[in-house]
Design brief:
Radius of gyration: 14 Å
Bound molecules: guanosine-5'-monophosphate
Helix content: 10-25%
Oligomer: single chain
Number of helices: 2
Strand order of the largest sheet: 1-2-3-5-4
Order of helices and strands: HEEEHEE
Length: 114
C-alpha cells in the first residue's frame, strides 16, 4: 500500500478540501495554491506518474481530464480559461509520487511556463 501523501488523502487518513469524488478519481484543493483556483485531480488507482500508466489506464487518464473540465465549470473558470498540468520528474518539479493533474485558473498565466 502506497504511503505517499496523496495515497493517504485518497484513503481519508489525512484531511483535504475535497471538491469532487467518484469511484475512480478524487479532486482536492492544493495546500499551497499557485493560482486562485488550484485543484489536484488524482486517480484512486496507485499510479506513481504519467510515465508509469499502462495502455489499460487510458480510459482512466481521459477521465481525469473530463473531471478537470467539469470542476473548472463548477469553479467558474471555464470562460476565462485555465491550465491543466502534469509534472513528471525532476525537471518538471514532480514532488509527490502519485499521478496528479493540476487544474489552475482564476488569473492570466504566462506561456511558456517557467
Ligand atoms: P507536483 O510538484 O508533484 O506536480 O505537485 C504536488 C502538489 O501537491 C504541489 O502543488 C503541492 O503544493 C501539493 N501538496 C503537497 N502536499 C500536499 C498536501 O498534503 N495536501 C494538499 N492538498 N496538497 C499538497
Amino acid at each position: 500500500m502506497a504511503d505517499n501523501i496523496f495515497a493517504k488523502i485518497i484513503r481519508k487518513e489525512i484531511p483535504a478540501k475535497i471538491v469532487y469524488e467518484d469511484e475512480r478519481a478524487l479532486a482536492f484543493r492544493d495546500v499551497d495554491p499557485k493560482a486562485p483556483i488550484h485543484i489536484l485531480i488524482v486517480p484512486k488507482k496507485d499510479i506513481a506518474r504519467v510515465s508509469e500508466a499502462k495502455a489499460e489506464d487510458e480510459p482512466l487518464l481521459g477521465h481525469l481530464l473530463t473531471v478537470a473540465a467539469e470542476i473548472a465549470r463548477k469553479e467558474g473558470i471555464d470562460v476565462t480559461g485555465y491550465r491543466v498540468v502534469i509534472n513528471k520528474g525532476a525537471h518538471a518539479g514532480e514532488t509527490v509520487p502519485h499521478l496528479h493533474v493540476h487544474l489552475l485558473g482564476g488569473r492570466p498565466m504566462n506561456w511558456p511556463p517557467g
